[in-house]
Design a protein that fits this description.
The structure holds 2 protein chains of 2 kinds. The longest helix of chain A is centred in the middle third of the chain and has 18 residues. The radius of gyration of chain A is 24 Å and the shape is globular. By secondary structure, chain A is α/β, with parallel strands linked by helices. By secondary structure, chain B is α+β, with helices and mostly antiparallel strands. In chain B, the strands form 2 sheets. In chain B, strands 5, 6, 7, 8 and 9 form a 5-stranded antiparallel beta sheet that branches. A 4-stranded antiparallel beta sheet of chain B has the order 2-3-1-4, covered by helices on one side. In chain B, a hairpin with a 5-residue loop joins strand 2 and strand 3. The chains are: A alpha/beta, B alpha+beta. At the A-B interface, strand 6 of A face helix 1 and helix 2 of B.
């Protein structure tokens, strides 16, 4: 029996176990939408802007560990996905984005709603396809999911011309994908693991430097086992947050530009930095020449291009991080070293740094400090929630003050730094976990970049809580202007703001405002109890800064502390 | 340092733009590039001449390998290999320089591939240095047009790319 391309699309997704699409219909994808109408078990969430669809697929993937799926039409529908795709690419998030395309005969003709989306997105996808024959469709979809989810994960784009969706062929979905040109290394070399274990035995001041790879490979339990077995401190990148409990004695918190004092001091003084699924981003290293100057570097990553790109690795280990962690833990279990005694002086030193400078701010009674809002969110939820963030001060305070316990609970645009990411990502996470409490920690600037998705949240009854730290500024840019541009606040003040409470109500959501510190807790409790989409407008201290801060281009032990 | 890199790729739509885009997007330099299908019509062979220090060349080969459509990458600089390019040169042929043009062509083992009352078109193949030397020698005789190919390369002995 023959099926149309549109039928094959739907059947392939179901075969793939992808039962949720974030999408927006349009001319050339009408054949698919007609099939979706007939296939209720393939759930579709109608977004308000295609960028939102891709961020939702991304948030769904980060929270659930399953690949996210977005579906949009050609032309503007496709071009609107670019920021979402680039965001997922920079953070290695497995998503598959399906774009409609004009019929193959019209491609290149400047047809109505035509865009060369494969060309436009080429530098920000892991891979992309333009399907030109319906016979290739099922195979292409299987390959797209395979590529998105294996090796170093990432976004894959599949462009679907309308005539391919209407053409017919037999449906056969491949049981297994094999590609001669794509065989990611999945197994870590045992000899390199032995070298890494030997380096750990020799080191006096080791640091485990953990990135997003630990979350992507679901290896957090192995990390706990390793850190506790060898009594080694753990610092995390923004992307790694959640992979090690914030309140663990061995946890140093985040490192880098807005990292903790003890994390940045520890990395500066370490003699062995063990990078686990991290990539030595410039926001982590600061001035590269003075980064970890006395350290031997071991680097475990599934992507060979990440190794020795910014920092030369003395012990490179290419392979799946979970596999590497398991093997390393097995070798460590055989070790005769008394790790606790060996690392005591080092942990004592770190403890001194911990007491020398803690994350803190001056509490006020009449004005809400943004850090206090994060602390209250942390207290009220007991950490049992999923937190998405926007980008800027809100993101950094969330990274600093939330006490995360579990991986996949902190969703943030680390690499691209996409304002407008958090809210749709939170919707995607909420769609994956309808019963969990999901927050978007936002600023008044970034929330306005994808505020239209309130319509999506209300229509789908997804009770995301948006906590706006409203300072009336593009706060992080203003902070840089204050510190590095002589207080010249050039176009960082949004003098006209919507009334966020009324805005929420206009969409059919709940709106709450808090202007005094004592209102913060009750506002949060009310929002959580409401179980409906909510905006809480926290009117906060306007010119609070994020500290510690390493000025761009400085070594990371040269921190501005207040 | 100059490196000659051969890349075996899937002979698919858009693969050239993926490779060239990788170079431009990451700020790597391409001196020349040539591409054509191999005996197996499903694969193509690219030869890229690039420059960079060891760290850059390492990134180039790793990044090329990371492209989904790339099957294999060889950097020839570490081994003995053959490199060839071709040039077509159209020169003014005057009664007083025809003998000189022919002599040069013979010295470089080139061929005159087209003759008209006013022009000779000469083909020379060889390694980079030879082709460049020929162009330099013929320049004073009046080059009207020049077309030079990217280089192709192959290991000496039994070793192969595919």
């Amino acid at each position: 029996m023959e099926h149309t391309g549109a039928e094959i699309f739907v059947k392939s997704l179901l075969k793939q176990g992808a039962d949720l699409i974030f999408g927006y219909p349009g001319g050339v994808v009408l054949p698919i939408y007609d099939e979706l109408f007939k296939t209720p078990k393939l759930r579709h969430i109608l977004v308000r802007h295609e960028q939102g669809a891709v961020h939702m697929a991304d948030g769904f993937a980060r929270a659930s560990g399953k690949p996210g799926v977005a579906l949009v039409t050609s032309g503007p529908g496709a071009t609107n996905t670019v920021t979402g795709i680039a965001t997922a690419y920079m953070d290695s998030i497995p998503i598959v984005v399906f774009t409609g395309q004009v019929p193959t005969g019209l491609i290149g003709n400047d047809a109505f709603q035509e865009a060369d989306i494969v060309g436009i997105t080429r530098p920000c996808v892991k891979h992309s396809y333009l399907v030109r024959d319906v016979k290739d469709l099922a195979n292409t979809i299987a390959e797209a999911f395979y590529i998105a989810t294996t090796g170093r994960p990432g976004p894959v784009l599949v462009d679907l011309p309308k005539d391919v969706l209407l053409a017919k062929t037999r449906f056969e979905y491949p049981e297994k994908v094999e590609m001669r040109s794509y065989r990611p290394t999945t197994v870590a070399n045992k000899r390199q693991i032995d070298r890494l274990a030997a380096a750990l035995e020799e080191a006096k001041r080791p640091v485990l430097y953990v990135g997003g790879g630990m979350i992507l490979t679901n290896a957090a339990a192995e990390l706990k086992k390793l850190a506790r077995a060898i009594h080694a401190p753990v610092t995390m990148t923004l992307m790694g947050l959640g992979s090690f409990p914030s309140l663990d004695d061995l946890c140093l918190g985040m490192l880098g530009m807005h990292g903790t004092y003890r994390a940045n001091m520890a990395v500066t003084h370490t003699d062995l930095i063990v990078a686990l699924g991290a990539r030595f981003d410039d926001r982590v290293t600061g001035k590269l020449d003075e980064f970890a100057p006395n350290a031997k570097v071991a680097h475990v990553d599934v992507d060979p291009t990440a190794i020795s790109k910014n920092v030369t690795a003395h012990i490179p280990v290419v392979g799946d991080l979970k596999d590497a962690m398991k093997k390393l833990n097995a070798v460590i279990a055989e070790s005769k070293v008394d790790w606790k005694t060996k690392h005591k002086p080092w942990l004592d030193q770190i403890d001194e740094w911990k007491h020398a400078n803690k994350l803190e701010y001056v509490k006020k009674t009449k004005v809400i400090k943004p850090q206090f809002v994060i602390e209250e969110i942390d207290r009220v939820t007991g950490g049992d929630a999923i937190f998405a963030t926007e980008v800027g001060q809100n993101q950094m305070w969330a990274a600093q003050y939330l006490t995360l316990k579990n991986p996949r609970t902190f969703l943030t645009s680390g690499g691209l730094g996409t304002m407008g990411y958090g809210f749709p990502a939170a919707i995607g996470a909420q769609a994956a976990f309808p019963d969990k409490v999901v927050f978007d920690i936002a600023g008044d600037g970034s929330i306005q970049m994808n505020i239209q998705e309130l319509g999506t949240a209300v229509q789908q009854r997804l009770p995301v809580i948006i906590a706006i730290l409203n300072n009336g500024f593009l706060g992080m840019v203003r902070q840089w202007q204050q510190l590095f541009h002589g207080n010249r606040y050039s176009y960082t003040c949004m003098e006209s703001q919507p009334d966020f409470v009324k805005l929420a109500e206009a969409y059919g959501a709940l709106g709450i405002r808090a202007t005094l510190p004592e209102e913060v807790g009750p506002a949060l409790e009310r929002a959580i109890a409401a179980r409906r989409p909510t905006i809480i407008d926290f009117v906060v201290d306007r010119e609070e800064n994020v500290y510690p801060m390493v000025p761009a281009g400085s070594p990371i032990n040269k921190m501005l502390l207040a | 340092m100059r490196h000659t890199i051969s890349v075996l790729v899937e002979n698919k739509f858009g693969v050239l733009s993926r490779v060239s885009g990788l170079f431009s997007g990451r700020g790597f330099n391409i001196e020349s590039l040539s591409v054509a299908p191999t005996l197996d019509q499903t694969t193509s062979r690219m030869t890229i001449i690039t420059r960079g220090d060891d760290a850059i060349i390492e990134q180039i080969t790793k990044q090329l390998n990371k492209l989904i459509d790339v099957i294999k990458v060889i950097d020839f600089s570490e081994e003995d290999f053959i490199e060839r390019g071709i040039v077509l040169v159209k020169v003014n042929s005057e009664p007083n320089n025809r003998a000189e043009i022919l002599r040069m062509t013979e010295i470089f083992r080139g061929k005159v591939v087209d003759v008209s009352p006013k022009t000779y078109t000469i083909e020379v193949t060889g390694a980079e240095e030879k082709v460049s030397a020929f162009v330099e020698m013929i320049k004073p005789l009046g080059i009207i047009e020049i077309a030079r190919s990217g280089k192709i390369a192959m290991s000496r002995g039994k070793k192969t790319l595919g």
